[in-house]
Design goal:
By secondary structure, this protein is mainly beta. It folds into three domains: about 5-135, Immunoglobulin-like; about 135-190 and about 405-540, no CATH class; about 235-400, no CATH class. The protein contains three helices and 41 strands. The strands form eleven sheets. The protein has a five-stranded mixed β-sheet with strand order 5-13-12-9-10, with no helix packed on it. Strand 21 (about 245-250) and strand 22 (about 250-255) form a beta hairpin. The radius of gyration is 31 Å and the shape is elongated. Mean pLDDT is about 85; it is low at about 1-30.
Amino acid sequence: MMKMKTIYYLLLFVLGCGLMSCYDDKSTYDTKEIPNVELDLNGVSETQYVAYLGKLHIDIPVKKNGTPDHPDLEYKWEIELSSSAGLREVLSNERVLDTIASMPIQASGYTLTLEVTDKVSTLKYYSVFSLVVESQFGEGIIVAHSRDGETSDLSLIMDKDISKGFTGTEKIQYDDIFTSKGEPLGDWIDNVAYTVSGATWSTYQNILWMAGKNGLFRADCRDYSFLETGKIIPFVTETYTSGHFYLAPQTTILVMNNQVYQHLRQNDAIFIKPEVISDLGGLQSNYVDNRVVAAATGDGTHSSGSSIWYDSQVGRFGRFNGAFSQNKCSLYSSSENDDNFPFDPSAVAGKEAVAGGFMNSSSLVMVLKDKVSGEYSLYTFFTKNQDNTLVNPTPSYLYSVPAAIKDLLDRSVSICFSTVDPIMYVATAREIHAVRLNIDGSLASSLKYTAAAGENISILKFYTQGRYNVNSEDFDSDTESLLTLPLNTKAVMMATQASDSEGYVYLIPQKDPGTGNLDEEKQVKYDGFGKISDITAQGR
């Protein structure tokens, strides 16, 4: 049986005759049935579900006196955004609702009303629905880019190689998310990082941190709405100049104005300056050269040795131990130096920081360049002993860079490290080289990839699933949603530019484990971006 919503109105018109009536004069009653207006709700659920920023499409056939789309009828789709504030918004004046669901995610549902007005009778007919707005965004690759060189936007790529549970045959790409929300970001996003925040694992909220030229931003990954942006660094009084985010055990590190700040993911929503310890000479420890930090990843596996940086003002390495009670910054002291160390971490003067990262599941690496000679050196720190017990970052190797690799570093545009192998990837404008750090203190490099004609490489990052960076021990467990993807720690992400308005993102798998080789034949290319400023893996 077809379900119809039919509303009838009966009007009584009382027509009186005049006092000077003829012989047959008497009162008459004219009874009129209001024209039959039908709203066909057959197969239409009272609760409608829609993905945030997805297409909201509802087609309710409407007839007057059996005629579809009668010219006497007018339509209004209206949503109640706040019952307490009486806030309502008209979504459409067409019979078929066909729009983008840009209202905030709300699992409890909005009240959505279709109002049909008969212009002749002025009568109104209603149909009311509950509209549940859900997040359509999940695991994938976030691309920060600009189409005008001044403002920024985000795009999300979801695909079988980078999105757990992806069932489609074609990639899903959400472009210009801020613009589609009507909230364009009037700043250039310099750095973007994914992490989580919350009291417990089950209540963690997926967060995207962004550092712009003019300030810091925090967004909810469910709908990319901004979250208390003004409260990210509430206790900082100095003028913001630059920022960069790093993931460290149980914390997110922010380098702002060359200073270290920390966000403890488990119990707060702000960044604060950790306790700064001075050595006997009164030297303090949290100046970060060129915003470069080498940070271990994974809460469970590296709760002790956290992160290091180079302090060019005092010519020493600094370190941050970020595990709950150890939220302190300190410089390496000369008293800590050991004759067995390959270098004294308290005596490294006259350098500048070029790159840093976490390598081979157990080492922090810093690439420094001598300010006078222009020569490079690689400094590595163990975070684990041979028996896998955790230690504070301990000097392990010092690598002198030969001329051929110096030339690569001089021409480099981006450097990243394999988290599972002793390999540093160096990208020039046209090539990717793998530099292997051997246990005998030598370095060996080889060409692994050449960019497509007409494209220049701008960004290179080692691919790791977003939440795997937060806590790798929670993967491959009984939690189905946290199973690892086949390319986790087995690929690199690359951004290229054909022009300032034409950017591309590549996912390039490795082949021959341990060699750093890249499988160009199996690479996946994503397009549709402007000038790309950063890329990162987003978790779920």
